[in-house]
Amino acid sequence: xxxxxxxxxxxxxxxxxxxxxxxxxxxxxxxxxxxxxxxxxxxxxxxxxxxxxxxxxxxxxxxxxxxxxxxxxxxxxxxxxxxxxxxxxxxxxxxxxxxxxxxxxxxxxxxxxxxxxxxxxxxxxxx
Length: 127
Description:
The protein has helices at about 15-35, 70-80, 95-110; strands spanning about 5-10, 35-55, 55-70, 85-95. It is α+β, with helices and mostly antiparallel strands.
């Protein structure tokens, strides 16, 4: 059974745009090659780090939201550990509330106005 996860990773700031896109493509390809499905991918760009990591103060942030088998996550994280371009990463399993929040956030970012499903339709005013 596929579970939903999200991974945020920080790549070293010395990469060019082409190298950064190649790194992201490697991890999205790894997910799809192992039977997973990409739900969403966001490049947050170059941001300042809260504290220096390997004497670097900035990094390229990327968020990948995906569905995969739970056994795949250990293999996925091993690839992050082996890649010298990756400064930090974190993968979390999403519960139903996190999935709903992520969907609302994506809808808000795309400019679509989404009405809550539990809000009742307005009844006409009785006179």
